[in-house]
Amino acid sequence: MLVSELKPLEEVLGYLDGERKIFLVGCKGCAEACQTGGEEQVLEMKEKLEGEGFEIAGWTVIDFLCEKALVKMKLGAHRSRVSSADSLLVMSCGIGVQAVAAVVEKVVHPACNTISVGGAQGEWPGSERCLQCGDCLLDWTGGICPLTACTKGLLNGPCGGSKDGKCEFEPEARDCGWYLIYERLKKLGRLDKWRNAPPLIKNYAKAQPPKSLRATTFWALEVEK
Amino acid sequence: MKLTELFAKGKFVVTSEIGPPKGVNVQEMLEVADLLKGRVDAVNITDQQSSVMRLGSLASCHLLKERGIEPVFQITCRDRNRIALQSDLLSAYALGIENVLCLTGDYVALGDHPDAKPVFDLDSVSLLVAARRLQEGYDLAGKELRGKPDFCLGAVVTPGAEPLEPQIIKMEKKVRAGAQFFQTQAVYDPRRFEEFMGQVKHLKVPVMVGIVLLKSAGMARFMNKNVAGVHVPESLIEEMEEATDRRAKSIEIAARLIREMKDLCQGVHIMPIGWERLVPAVLDAAGL
């Protein structure tokens, strides 16, 4: 299971700056359990955004967002509403955000931070990875995580070792994560997201499991078993 | 002396570079440095180049400074977190080192300690941010410094990157973060370099074209295959192949490239990779 918490609303509103019509996506898996992306939270978000003057193009809660093929099919049922939206706001872990970004040709924003569970992870069938860094930056990077997609985990752009879209370390096996990000943003016409982002310096303190989580039975996995 | 002072005077700035030895025998490094003294404006000291563990850049810069040679302190984010990077920047300034080249650093697996833990807490952009913050009298945590450094901050760019746009976006970020000059990855194609310079004109920042001395046709082919953003044209490879005196040919090619690109940029950075002793001859042949 992945643990998530909602980002402060102001941060989410910052992502939506300049947009008007939003499609909301929740997840019936871990996010519903964490009360960050279940139906109840999606409807609360809908109300908050409408209160801020946004139009909600539609919403759906999918079980589970880490199942990319399912995400693609379920969002297919909402095709016209999704395509009428300026962007999608995804209320789930970093895997869910990346899975949605991979199947829709739209700007995708994260509504949550994925909290570190200190190594214990769920299983998902896709290629996306979430480091549970506690401070999701997928908004700036086209829904592709540079911490996991870039070999060096660089936050501000590619290094000099990117060649023909491949990472100079194991070019036969590794794409350059920043090349993927660049291609995605270019396709969406949103290179400005990266270009205008201030220099990112990560708060790695947030990548540690929080005290509040360590005190739960969830942390003590053997209790659950 | 800061390189920015020379750029401001309109001087075509010349730098070269030395890799410290693996070990503590610094004799040869200092001999080479003496050879470059007076011929170049400053000498870069690489920071565990290609992730190969060796004598440190900071100590080597200090040794050069003691001999009256202006060093450029190369500092990478591969081996140190933000605490150590900021501390080394302060240490450099305390030793009189003013020119700093901020790099991300190669991945550890490419070097001789592939089992090491890579750091990359910061990257080239955020390292520049950190250096500038120190100059403003604060560290990255916002704590006030007792005495602040005053650097000339440099960065690198790869004009031959494919695609080029991501490189330029990152270059823009480096300029905004505080980069005052750029040294480039090796360039062998003046026409392509001219196009690149046209695309970064808006940044109004001095660019020093990078020249790597060709040692053989094999080396050129190796770089074409393995080094991102470096392309040696077939004509140069043939020239190297046919040469009876490879050193003389290497000098000739480097000098020709410098002459062809001199008017396009504000300086040249010569990376001799072992052939440091040839640098004065390259400069003679290039008329510098």
Q: Care to give the gist of this entry?
A:
Chain A is of the alpha/beta class and 225 residues long. Chain A contains eleven helices and eight strands.
Percent of residues in beta strands of chain B: 15-25%
Determine the number of helices of chain B (DSSP H or I, runs of at least 4 residues): 11
Instruction: Find the count of extended strands of chain B (DSSP E, 2+ residues).
Output: 8
CATH architecture of the largest domain in chain A: 3-Layer(aba) Sandwich
- How far apart lie the N and C ends of chain B? 20 Å
CATH topology name of chain B, in short, is: TIM Barrel
Q: What is the helical fraction of chain A, as a range of percent?
A: 25-40%
In DSSP terms (H or I, runs of 4 or more residues), the helix count of chain A works out at: 11
Structural domain tally of chain B: 1
Shape of chain B: globular
Structural class of chain B: alpha/beta
Largest interface: A-B, 28 and 36 residues
Low-confidence stretches of chain A: none
SSE string of chain B, helices as H and strands as E:
HEHEHEHEHEHEHEHHHEH
**Would you tell me the overall average pLDDT of chain B?**
97
Count of the domains of chain A: 2
